[in-house]
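R.M. (postdoc): so does anyone remember the format we settled on? I'll just put the structure tokens first.
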């Protein structure tokens, strides 16, 4: 317990940093993922191509390489002044959005085609059909895999510690360098912190899944 009590402030800062990074990145991933899923089922060819390209590139690019591309590439393009935390949010959010897109698109494909055809037959536009008829039903199917993606996102935030972002991974690095504590004890407390966050995320999505199941 000494390592936790002696460095509680560092653990608290890292824990809250991980929670904040996960929450903001997850929100960005959900917004972009739903948008890209809409693009992928759009009747406009250019949007379908853009959505497919987005998913293909991000799903097949290693996350560390994507971090390097963002943190080094944006300044090279003249986009300077970005805080490392927001660069991490952008990187994690965009990366995860590609997987969210496929989960949402799978949910959309599970909705019977007759639902969309009936909506169009009464004069609803594509946007109205998607937003008012298809997506509400697709969400019920997409919630479980999205929950798993958010748990994976929580663990992926550890990579941000290598890019000057304060979170649990950076706490582990600083304690290993500046203290004489057993490295396995430090790893144990870091792991417990991650477990707490992932269990909270899992519980949140399980609650959401149950509520939507009742609505079904």
């Amino acid at each position: 317990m000494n390592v936790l009590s002696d460095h509680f402030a560092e653990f608290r800062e890292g824990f809250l940093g991980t929670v904040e990074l996960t929450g903001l990145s997850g929100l960005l991933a959900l917004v972009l993922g739903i948008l890209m899923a809409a693009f992928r089922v759009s009747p406009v060819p250019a949007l379908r191509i853009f959505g497919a390209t987005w998913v293909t590139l991000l799903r097949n690019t290693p996350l560390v390489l994507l971090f390097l591309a963002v943190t080094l590439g944006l300044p090279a393009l003249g986009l300077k002044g970005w805080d490392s935390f927001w660069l991490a949010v952008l990187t994690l959010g965009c990366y995860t959005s590609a997987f969210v897109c496929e989960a949402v698109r799978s949910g959309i494909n599970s909705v019977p085609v007759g639902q969309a055809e009936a909506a169009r037959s009464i004069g609803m536009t594509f946007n109205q059909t998607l937003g008012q008829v298809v997506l509400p039903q697709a969400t019920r199917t997409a919630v479980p895999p999205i929950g798993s993606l958010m748990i994976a996102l929580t663990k992926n935030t550890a990579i941000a510690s290598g890019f000057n972002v304060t979170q649990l991974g950076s706490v582990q690095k600083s304690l290993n360098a500046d203290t004489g504590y057993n490295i396995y004890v430090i790893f144990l407390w870091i792991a417990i912190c991650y477990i707490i966050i992932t269990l909270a995320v899992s519980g949140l999505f399980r609650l959401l899944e149950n509520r939507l199941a009742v609505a079904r």
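R.M.: ...and that's the designed sequence above, right after the tokens. Also worth knowing: The mean pLDDT is 84. The first helix runs from residue 2 to 6.
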